[in-house]
Task: inverse folding
């Protein structure tokens, strides 16, 4: 008999979006929420694709902002 399907709660969905917007990997997210990668893909990615794209874009923008700040600091040191 197969295991029961794990459903993601609204709180878990919010946590996933927050972690993705901070640039967290899928592996990190799955470990943090104690879910499998297939649960992530089936329940979140397929049903909330637009939220994933938005969160990933925010994460990329935050990463670029951090890089720009680091470059400014290095330039100012010189």
Result:
């Amino acid at each position: 008999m197969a295991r029961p399907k794990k459903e993601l709660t609204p709180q878990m969905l919010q946590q996933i979006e927050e972690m993705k917007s901070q640039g967290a990997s899928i592996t990190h997210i799955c470990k943090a929420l104690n879910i499998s990668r297939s649960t992530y893909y089936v329940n979140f990615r397929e049903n909330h694709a637009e939220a994933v794209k938005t969160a990933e874009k925010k994460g990329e923008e935050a990463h670029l902002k951090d890089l720009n700040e680091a470059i400014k600091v290095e330039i100012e040191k010189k």
